[in-house]
Amino acid sequence: MFNPLLGVVFHWIGGLASASFYVPYRGVRRWSWEVFWIIGGLFSWIIAPWLFALIQTNDLFGVLAATPGRTWFWCVVFGLLWGTGGLTFGLTIRYLGISLGTSVALGLTAAFGTLIPPIVSGEFFTSLLPSTGGQIVLAGVLVALAGIAVIGFAGRAKERHQADGRAPGSTAHDFKRGMAVAVFSGIMSACFAYGLAAGEPIRQATLTAGTDPLMQGLPVLCVVLLGGFATNALWCAYLIAKNRSAAQFVGAASTHAATDGGPTVYGERFGRSPLLRNYLLSALGGTVWYFQFFFYTMGESQMGRYGFSSWTIHMASIIIFASLWGIGLNEWRGSGGRAKALLTIGLAILIGSTVVIGWGNAISSGSM
């Protein structure tokens, strides 16, 4: 029996994990981005997925060994493509700013990741549009996209207000280039949803092996995240070679700024790094990142007929909790009344959209 409202709660928890995973990285000292990112990534994409799948599912290796090569291929390929979307997200932020860049990229990711799978399968026209529950789900998706747009306007108003008094040209924003990168990043990031859809044979196999339905998505994550790991590992290896930062793994300090478009090096410029602290914080950040999809797959298992709508709830939840983190970290201080009002409205719309989508799924699954 499906429980879409419980699924929404799981998606909220996953969104909280996604919005919070970078917090431990803020405590890393004297390591370059590429060093702490690949250490955290080992836990995000390899250690945590396989560990939890081994613990929570039955006959993991047998299930994956029996998985058709075509399924492996598409899961890994979509994981690779998703990885490129994540890497170019930093450039989106550089060219458009945090709020506008996040809203454009995640808005496109939500739209493509949610709507393309049912359109390709034919379910959009044969099941979603003709049914009341499907229409409510679709309405919830559209409401979520509207909420993302409002959050984007709020962020734009915030940036403009906070930019008053700064010298002209003091930002590196480039709207045209940023929009092009944001479209690429958004579409590629949606490939994670396609990878999960391609892994349906793995779900069926693990259920046949006796796995709890709530945990059926964990083996799929093992395969999709292999592709994501490959993309990120190649990029980090390039940066490590370029910046000569390999010695940081054994305690040498960074003496350069990050070059990936993300945050610069944390901590002091010179001196040895606190090695154990850095490894533990990176491992924590990576594991928290994984939990977004651990709870995502649990939520998706409860959504019933229109499980693809999980992707919109996931994106909306990330933006909700990321915005709340921004408020808690005083990023909205001095942003002006208009920006704060738009932020409040946008958050209310996003929260409402997740409830609407859960309601539509509940009607479709017969639980209401």
Protein described:
It is a single chain. With 368 residues, the chain is mostly helical. It has one domain. It contains 14 helices and no strands. α4 (69-96) runs antiparallel to α9 (191-198) and α5 runs antiparallel to α13. The longest helix has 32 residues, at 132-163.
By DSSP (H or I, 4+ residues per run), the number of helices equals 14
Spans where pLDDT lies below 50 across 5 or more residues: 167-171, 257-270
Q: Based on DSSP secondary structure assignment, what is the total number of beta strands? A: 0
- Radius of gyration, CA atoms, in whole angstroms: 21 Å
Mean pLDDT across all amino acids: 84
Structural class: mainly alpha
Major beta sheet summary: none
Helix content, binned percent: over 70%
* Shape label: globular
Distance between the termini: 12 Å
Q: How many separate domains make up the residues?
A: 1
Beta-strand percentage range? under 5%
Order of helices and strands: HHHHHHHHHHHHHH
